[in-house]
Amino acid sequence: MSSETSSYPQEISPVEKPVQFERPQFGASLIQAGSLIGAPQARNNFSVTGNGLTVAVLDTGLRTTHLDFEGRVIEQKNFTADNGGNVDDASDGNGHGTNVAGIIVANRFHIGIAPGANVIPIKVLSNSGGGSFSAIRDALQWVIAHRSQHNITVVCMSLGDSQNYTDDTPFSTDEIRLKIQALRNERVAVVVAAGNDFFVHSSQQGMSYPAILRESVSVGAVYDASEGGFTYSSGASTSESAPDRITPFSQRLHETVNPITRTEIFAPGAPITSSGILDDKAESTQQGTSQATPVTAGVILLLQEYYLGLTGSLPSVDDLEIYLRAGGVMINDGDDEQDNVTNTGLNFLRIDVVQALENINSRLQKAMFEEQKTLQVLGKS
């Protein structure tokens, strides 16, 4: 899709509401998603949980009283007219934001990818699921202003405009892009859903906005288990799901089409069970790149904590992307998918936490070795 304007789109496409349950229905939440990417092993072997770091979740809000988040909701903001327009009330009447936040940081009835991290829900989507990008602009500005105060190191945005771009030049000077750039310069990763409209766009490669922005960390979705077939509201369907099969709805952009704005990584996103909004022990389940995005946000928190412990500073977002991709598992789009879209036949990368953490070790050790060699040479001279 092309555009004649350099401004951001106006309307955010409404997100779908998760299916809600009053009590946990499926046992230990995220067990399949976490196991596929090695999250439990990574937390155990590398002693990381996201402790001390904070993720800002720009979504429909959060059931802040849910026991999964007890003691770790350190702030909340509302940029919608919901909740009486109270800027300090990010209560979630939809469920999407609570599901997303739980995937990242839940730590009681459900276990997120980074269960030791803090969370700040920023309500930019209404209880009906829609919203405006002006709310995103204002929310990102709030994050920039309060990043240091709350140690915000990741922003999660499971939202988009449902369009299909292959390039970000139409948005070269828009305000949202400039704010994402500013956060990236401060080593804050802005993780964004690639979009759920691959079928709608006739299997043409591309991603929605703002995932298409090169400064974002864009995320596509794979299945995490064999759970039968699924048919989606977009018209996409699969007759059989299986681990590492790309979901038929997930938008995707290979580096051979555009190496600058490619889909950075794939992660489990269908179906994912997490925290719910019916009560303080409730759970919900949903499928989408909206769910793969918080999986990736949680992984980044683990990488940041580990790197920070080794070096005393946060890694750059450029380095985070290197670690994610160098540690990624190669998946082929079309080798075993059984769906109603035209697969690209190309190889993409699916996130693996353990391998990403090991990549940090190997690269830091190599850098240390090179530094020692340089010092030896200088000493001899």
How large is the count of helical segments? 8
Counted beta strands: 16
Q: Distance N terminus to C terminus?
A: 58 Å
Class from helix and strand fractions = alpha/beta
Strand proportion, as a percent range, falls in: 15-25%
Q: How helix-rich are the residues, as a percent range?
A: 25-40%
* Strand arrangement, major sheet: 4-5-3-7-8-9-12
Mean pLDDT: 94
CATH class: Alpha Beta
CATH superfamily: Peptidase S8/S53 domain
Q: Which descriptor suits the 3D outline?
A: globular
Radius of gyration: 20 Å
Q: Spell the H/E element sequence.
A: EEHHEEHEEHEHEEEEEEEHHEEH
CATH architecture annotation name: 3-Layer(aba) Sandwich
Describe the protein.
The protein has 381 residues and is an alpha/beta fold. It has a single domain, classed as Peptidase S8/S53 domain (Rossmann fold, 3-Layer(aba) Sandwich), CATH 3.40.50. Helices cover 30% and strands 17% of the residues. The protein has eight helices and 16 strands. The strands form five sheets. A seven-stranded parallel β-sheet has the order 4-5-3-7-8-9-12, with helices on both faces. It has a three-stranded antiparallel β-sheet with strand order 2-14-13, with helices on one face. The N and C termini lie far apart (58 Å). The model is unreliable at 1-6 (pLDDT under 50).
